[in-house]
Amino acid sequence: MTRFSFACTGVRADRYAAGPTLVFRLRVTAADNARVHALALRCQIRIEPARRGYETAEADALADLFGERSRWGSTLQPVQFAQVSVMVPSFTGEIDTDLVVPCTYDMDIAASRYLAALTDGEVPLLMLFSGTAFTGAGGFQVEPVPWDREAAFRMPVTAWREMVEQHFPGCGWIRLPRDTMDALLAHRSRHALPSWEATVRALLEESGAADPPGTDPFLALTGTTGRMDP
């Protein structure tokens, strides 16, 4: 059976994609310079939070995911990032190919919340591979790619931030139930507030809360009925 190995050599934000998308550069190697007619590959990508350090501000922002820092020895568990498939074309021995990963900026998703909390550095990722290989030099045979194939990669936080800024410049997203959106809309109309930013800030002021952290100039809110901008 052909032995495959995988390595991730880079990542970039796809500026031409319709939605937030990262493109990982993947290197696939077939041992003994084997001939591969095609490779139907599945990849699960996980964030491994325990494999990096955190500044105080980052730790505070991650408290809702992992609790207080004193508990991180047991709570800093892997976070699911994506599951994608790719068809690798014919090659002999080794090939570089793109692994296209659509991303979400929904702050209800653990991976988005984790990535948004990081200010700099790298994101420790683990890629787990499986799939089906179509191989053979003088013939044709079908082989499985076992789940023990994996590759570690440290993605620069800047790649994530660049991707987000391309599609949601200066924005953050919160998904809310319809009844909550209706209540916010009623509050906005009742007080003749000019935007969703003004609505949220007015509620924060009424509650005595400080200005929310970060530098986003406004907050876009989406409910089950779709996107609602200021």
Describe what you observe in this structure.
With 230 residues, the chain is an alpha+beta fold. The protein has helices at 56-61, 63-66, 72-75, 110-117, 157-167, 178-190, 196-207, and strands spanning 4-13, 21-30, 35-47, 79-88, 91-92, 94-102, 122-135, 141-156, 173-175, 220-223, 226-228. The protein is 25% helix and 41% strand. Strands 3, 4, 5, 7 and 8 form a 5-stranded antiparallel β-sheet that branches. The protein is elongated and about 75 Å long. 19% of the residues are buried.
Task: Summarize the model shown.
With 230 residues, this protein is an alpha+beta fold.
SSE inventory with pairings:
Blueprint: E1 4-13, E2 21-30, E3 35-47, H1 56-61, H2 63-66, H3 72-75, E4 79-88, E5 91-92, E6 94-102, H4 110-117, E7 122-135, E8 141-156, H5 157-167, E9 173-175, H6 178-190, H7 196-207, E10 220-223, E11 226-228
Parallel strand pairs: 9-10
Antiparallel strand pairs: 1-2, 2-6, 3-4, 3-5, 3-7, 7-8, 10-11
